[in-house]
Amino acid sequence: MENIKILITEDEIQKRIKELVAAMNEYYGNEEVHVICALKGAVIFAADLVRSLKMPVKMEFIRLSSYGGSKTSSGKVNAVDIALPDLNNKNVLIVEDIVDTGLTAKFLLDFMALNFKTKSTKFCALLDKKIFRKTDIEPDYYGFEIDDKFVIGYGLDYEGYYRNLRYIGYI
Ligand code: IMP
Ligand code: MG
Q: What is the pLDDT of residues 17-46, one digit of tens each?
């Protein structure tokens, strides 16, 4: 693969996930959590995360799109597939790959608030790219803050490729 520079190593990612999981295990205790994985980007992160959670967990998947293959957000979030069970009175933990403009996160949080009266709704993103934020969204949990690089790997793609890398890199 051409000239990928490593930004966050596999070890750093796994170490940080352990810290996030510890905080979640502490916060939720033995309460059931519904983890909502935002496809496709969060699939690898969510898979690693849930496997260390100690409470009863159910996984759901939703698919949104805002990028359409380029390196910049279209600024418009499209719901491609949202099929969720009844989440009233449940602890909901939304898992995303990255918060960039925050429009996707806002869409998800608004959608939850509109449709369910959850017991709790938390938002976890592996990466937080704060400089392009167009909303007042702050993730409850995040792995790493990054600057304005377009990153790939560990679920994140460029034109569909590189999701399978074990690390986060940039081209
Ligand atoms: P937002 O709606 O602008 O916050 O963008 C969120 C979505 O854009 C994420 O779920 C990613 O799919 C995608 N995205 C944002 N930045 C990057 C990046 O650096 N690499 C790959 N995808 C990204
Ligand atoms: Mg995404």
A: 999 999 999 999 999 999 999 999 999 999
Residue 151: inside a domain:
yes
Q: Using CA atoms, how far apart are residues 117 and 100, in angstroms rounded to an integer? A: 27
Which atom of ligand 1 sits closest to the CA of residue 157?
21
The CATH number assigned to the domain holding 149 equals 3.40.50.2020
Q: CB under 6 Å to ligand 1: residues? A: 41, 66-67, 73, 96-105, 129, 150-151, 156
Burial of 76 (0-12, 13-18, 19+ CB in 10 A): exposed
The SS3 of residue 99 is: strand
Choose, from 48, 97, 100, 128, the residue flagged as catalytic.
Answer: 100
Write out the residue range of the structural domain in which residue 123 sits: 5-65+76-170
Q: What's the CA-to-centroid distance between 18 and ligand 2, angstroms?
A: 22
Task: Specify the number of domains making up the chain.
Answer: 1
Q: How far apart are CA 41 and CA 36, in angstroms?
A: 12
Q: What is the pLDDT of residue 24?
A: 98
